[in-house]
Amino acid sequence: MAREPRIEPSGDVVDRVASTALSLPEAYEEDAWTGVRWRVRTRTFAHVLVSQEGYASAYRDVTGVAAATTVLTFRSTGEELQALTHVGLPFYRPSWSPTVVGMVLDDETDWQEVAELVTESYRFCAPRKLGRWLDG
User: Fold this and answer.
1) For residue range 60-98, what is the model confidence (pLDDT) as tens digits?
2) Residue 48: how many CB atoms within 10 A of its CB?
3) So what CATH class is 11-124?
4) Which of 3, 12, 47, 102 is most buried as measured by Cβ atoms within 10 A of its Cβ?
């Protein structure tokens, strides 16, 4: 049985995340093995992809949801990490990294919150000098 081709995230979702991610110092966008990711230097601070059957999926592993679902992964730390990983959906915690949080992106998404989370993830990944630029 042939595997279904990967579903890519919608251009609207990618554009909304990119509007924040690309406003950050030295951030750039690139296609990932699936979806789109944003990086600073060599570190990924945000990644949008579609979790779907037939492909490995931390989201599906955690939730059991088989339907194609657009998700964002980003980095977090400290109290924010603890809060996000214990609140439940739309957040979840992939098992492959202790500092990565996943978030479902759907019609209920608070895009201001996404902007804040992407910015904080950038701070986590960026060299200190770049992070200080954000503080003015």
Assistant:
1) 888 888 899 999 999 999 999 999 989 999 999 998 899
2) 27
3) alpha beta
4) 102
